[in-house]
Amino acid sequence: MVKLTDIAQRANVSVGTVSHVLGGKGDQRRISKATQEKVLQIAAELNYQPNVFAKRLRDRHSVPVFTLFYKPGLSATFLGEMVKGIQKVQLETAHSFEVMVQPYVSEEFQWAKTALGSTSGNGVIMCNTTIEESRELESMSLRAPVVFFNRYSPKYSSVYSDFSKVGAQTARLFFEKGYRNVALVGTGQNISNHVMREKGFLATCAKLGMSARLWTGEPKGDSASYGYRLTREILQSGAVPEGIFYSADEFAMGGIRACRELGVSLPEAIGMMGYGSSHFNEYLTPSLSSVGFPISNMIQDCVNLLLDKYYNNSQECKSIRFQADFTFRESFRPD
C-alpha cells in the first residue's frame, strides 16, 4: 500500500506538502505549480489510493465511526455473518453509527499497528489476531477504544469463547459417545483461539485415555479443499480414527467429500464434528454436527460495547464470554 511518505520521498518534499496537493489545497497553501504537478505525477505512477477510512473519520460529525480491522478467517461466510450482526444492532438500537472494514493480513500487521496507533476514531474492533500480534497491541497505548473479537484480553474489552474449555468439552463428547481413537484437523495457524481450542481438545483426550493426533497442512486454496486433502491423508495413513474433529466446519465439508470418494460411511465408520455455525451444515449429506460459533451474536456485543463507550463515556474494560453450543446431526453417532 502506497503511503504519503513514499510520495514525499520520491518528490523530495514534506509529507504535509503531499497531503495538501492531493487534497486539492496546493494553490491555497501557495505550493508552486511545478511541485504540484510533480507530486500528482508521482502519485499516479505509484498508483496511490487515498485512505478513505482516515478521510471519513476526519469528516465525521456526530455519528460515531468504528473501524473493524479484519483479517480473513477460515470460513468464506465469516465476514457475511459479521455484517448481519452489525446490521441487527443498527436496526435495534436508538443510536446511529457506522462501521468501516479495514482488511489486512499478517504480513501487513506493522502497517495495521501504525494505523491503530495514529487513529483518533471512535472505536476499533480487532478480529483474528495472532498470539504475537495480540501481545504487541496490548503493549501499546491506543487512543481509540478497542474491543477484541473472539480473543480474551486483560487490557482491552473483549467478546470471546473459552477456547480451551470448548476443546475439552468436545473431547469429552467424543468419549461419551464411545470414540477412543480420534483425529483433530487443526488450522495450522498461530491464532490464539485456534491454539487454545486445539490444546484443550488434545489434553482432555489424553486425560481420558483416548488416542488423539493433530493433523495440519499448508493452507492452499479454500478451507474445504484444505479439509479434503487432510482427510484423504488421514484415511490413507493406515491408522484410520473412529472420529474426526475439524477446527472449522468448512474443513469438514471437504472431509465429507473425501470419505464419500474413498467409500467411508458416516457416521458408521467415522463420526465427524465441525466447529462453526455455517447454515450449510444441515444441507450436507450427511448433515454435519457442529460446535456453534455465534459470529453474528458476538459482533453485536462488540459493537454494543463501543456504543456504550461512546454514548455513555464508559471507561470500564468488559469481557463477554460465550458458552459452547452443540448441534447434533447425521455425521455423529446418535445417543
- The helical percent reads 40-55%
H/E topology pattern = HHHHEHEHEHEEHEHEHEHEEHEE
CATH topology term of the largest domain: Rossmann fold
* Structural class computed from helices and strand pairing: alpha/beta
End-to-end CA span: 54 Å
CATH class of the largest domain: Alpha Beta
Tally of separate helices? 12
| The CATH superfamily title of the largest domain | Response regulator
Which strand-content bin applies to the residues?
15-25%
How is the biggest beta sheet arranged?
6 strands, parallel
Radius of gyration: 24 Å
Regions with pLDDT < 50 over 5+ consecutive residues? none
Mean pLDDT figure: 88
> In the CATH classification, which architecture of the largest domain applies?
3-Layer(aba) Sandwich
Domain count? 3
Taken from the alpha-carbon principal axes, the silhouette is elongated
Output the keywords.
elongated; alpha/beta; 434 Repressor (Amino-terminal Domain); 335 residues; six-stranded mixed beta sheet; six-stranded parallel beta sheet; Rossmann fold
